[in-house]
Amino acid sequence: MRLLYLACIVLLVGCERAAINKFSDDQIVKIYDLQDRRATDSLLVYLRSSNATYRSEAALALASVQDSLASVELGTHLLEDPDVDVRHHAAFALGQTGGFQAVNALLPALQSEDHTVAREVLEALGKTITKNDLGALREFHATDSLLEEGLSWACYHLALRKLTDSLLTKRASEFLVPSHSYQTRLGAAHFFGRSSKIEGKSFEENLVAAATKDIRPEVRMAAASGIKHLPLAQAKELIQRIIASEPDYRVRANAVRAIQNFAFSEMNELALSALHDSIHAVSVAASEVIRNKAEGLSADRLKEEIEKTISHRAKANLWATLLKTNSSHGAVEEIIRLSSTADTYFKAALYSALGEARPPTDQKAMQFLSQQLLAEGQGKVLLTSAAAALTSLDARRTTRDSKNSLLNTYQQAIASGDAGVIGIVASALTNEALQYKKEITDLKFLYDAKAKLNLPKDIESLQPLEEAIAFLEGKDKPVAIKNPYNHPIDWKRVKTIPRNQLAQIKTANGLIVVRLFVEESPGSVANFISLAEQKYFDGKFFHRVVPNFVVQAGCNRGDGYGSEDYAIRSEFSRRRYTTGSMGMASAGKDTEGTQWFITHSPTPHLDGKYTIFAEVQSGMENVHRLEVGDQMVEVTLLPTSK
User: Fold this and answer.
1) Which domain range does residue 625 map to?
2) Distance between CA atoms of 332 and 363, rounded to whole angstroms?
3) What is the CB neighbour count within 10 angstroms for residue 187?
4) CATH code for the domain of 88
């Protein structure tokens, strides 16, 4: 009896190990490998399988491949497949793929008796439908909460595509009221937050209520972004109320950003008050608004605010604002003096501020930035900051010498071979107003720079470099750049990763624990784990922090231009970006590498465009505290529970 008991234990343990994740099934591995290789024809074979699981996985894989050649067959499965998961994934894949064939495949499925499917179809049509077919959504009558949710998100996607009208505005406004589900309200709030222009009236009351009274801060913050559509007096009162009493800093940050959509003379005191918010993210958001608007503030007032402001990023933005005024005497010299003792990221922000200098002080700023750009031993972060500021000054000059004095600096900077600098300077050369097309007769320095860059590592720099070469040679289009497929998924490693695998990110601000989604994004997860095990992330910096958007890390340069000599594929699922989602940064589809980000809140404009490979399980409060220049101590895997 004891031997039988032990045999059962061994059998159970063996089964548990075999089922560590779904990739114990070799056919599912094959489907994901075909997705990784973008092999449409072979995936269509699995879409015809008698096994519903394989059909479902193949349909989902086609959402990442995005090949219109699969649209007709996906449409057939959307209408006829007996398995609901296959129909869900087919609708999602069609929405991801787009094109007239996708729309034609989706429209008949609006009448699906299964409202979970119809809900997916509605959202997919929001991503793909053309103006000519818009009546199908305008006239759709949602009869339950699922269809309301689908229609709300369809309206949101139409807003992103600038295909809204007064009827859709009315629908979105109605979806803001508390009787609707969270997802329905969230989609509607983002409709107003992301719309560049709202057609129609009578939405104001519901929008104000959503921004101030909704029980979910995620809805309030999205609605707060929609304040830009309100009349001035109403917007001013609402922003003031939110700044004064809203407990969630993310709502305050979004309300502050809305200020830039109005005459700054009416809103400047609100922006200035937000500079001294207890949360640095709000202060930074306020300083960015002030920098963008730069209207009506005296030099003395700006200097006073600089002294009182704690955040270094906010200080740098205020210095930039001071340089944009007509009373900036001595500011360039003071910024240069401050930069001599500042830490790297504060110094980079001060360099950026110098990019706002106006005549006659811009010449001194140009001279200093040129020196920093060509200085030996300069760190990557400071090189690209100097290049960006210098090209900004260049673009703003109103008078030009017969021979552009910056051209020699640009040629030397490009000759240095630094990928980030090459990309930034190359972009400046394509500016028609700068007249470089007349001055540059020998493009050898650009071709020499191109020879120093390599795919996929330098794709972000090669793209603008090819554009510059095409522009200067008078060609209509630059050479198309596409990353080679050079980093297949390590399936042996993937099969060892538990579906509930946790990773711990230790930062100076505390611990962040994330759960990895190996079953949804096996290539991205295997890549992240491999880098973590190599200690790749240890000691690197969070180089990008956008208030109430993302924190980003993983760059080997520390400025966002860094990567390694490989790229992995984008892996898209129906998972949405929410608070604490962890995604792969990219320069376009299939360009991911070492950089990743964590979201502060729902960011639906990233859904289906950036791989989600993990989600914060604990330590979100530490994510919210991260600032540019904060360092990762180490990233480690945690033991998993049985």
Assistant:
1) 491-638
2) 10
3) 31
4) 1.25.10.10
Site of tokens 């005459």? 263
Q: In this predicted model, what pLDDT tens digit does every residue of 240-272 receive, in sequence order?
A: 999 999 999 999 999 999 999 999 999 999 999
**DSSP 8-state assignment for residue 179:** T
Burial of 492 (0-12, 13-18, 19+ CB in 10 A): exposed
Tell me the per-residue pLDDT of 598-616, one tens digit each, with 9 for 90 and over.
Answer: 999 999 999 999 999 999 9
Place of tokens 């879409």: 47
Q: What spatial distance separates the first Cα and last Cα of the chain, rounded to whole Å? A: 26
397: pLDDT strictly greater than 80: no
CA 157/CA 151 separation, integer angstroms: 10
Q: Mean pLDDT, the chain, as a whole number?
A: 94
Residue 14 has pLDDT above 70, yes or no: no
Task: Name the 3-class secondary structure at 95.
Answer: helix
CA nearest to 373, candidates 358, 388, 360: 388
Residue 30 to residue 53: CA distance in whole angstroms: 13
Q: How far apart are CA 483 and CA 24, in angstroms?
A: 30
Whether residues 222 and 155 share a domain: the answer is no
| 3-state SS class at 65 | helix
Q: What is the pLDDT of residue 107?
A: 98
Q: How many domains does the chain have?
A: 3
What's residue 19's pLDDT? 73
Instruction: Read off φ and ψ for residue 157, nearest 5 degrees.
Output: -65, -35
What's residue 200's pLDDT? 83
pLDDT of residue 12: 42
Helix H segments across 177-311?
182-194, 204-213, 217-225, 232-245, 249-257, 264-274, 280-293, 299-308
Residue 609 belongs to domain with CATH number = 2.40.100.10
Closest to 55 (Cα-Cα) out of 90, 25, 106, 102:
90
* Confidence (pLDDT) at 399: 64
What are φ and ψ of residue 5, in 5° steps?
-60, -45
Looking at the fold, whether 225 and 178 belong to one and the same domain comes out as: no
Q: How confident is the model at residue 325 (pLDDT cuts 50, 70, 90)?
A: confident
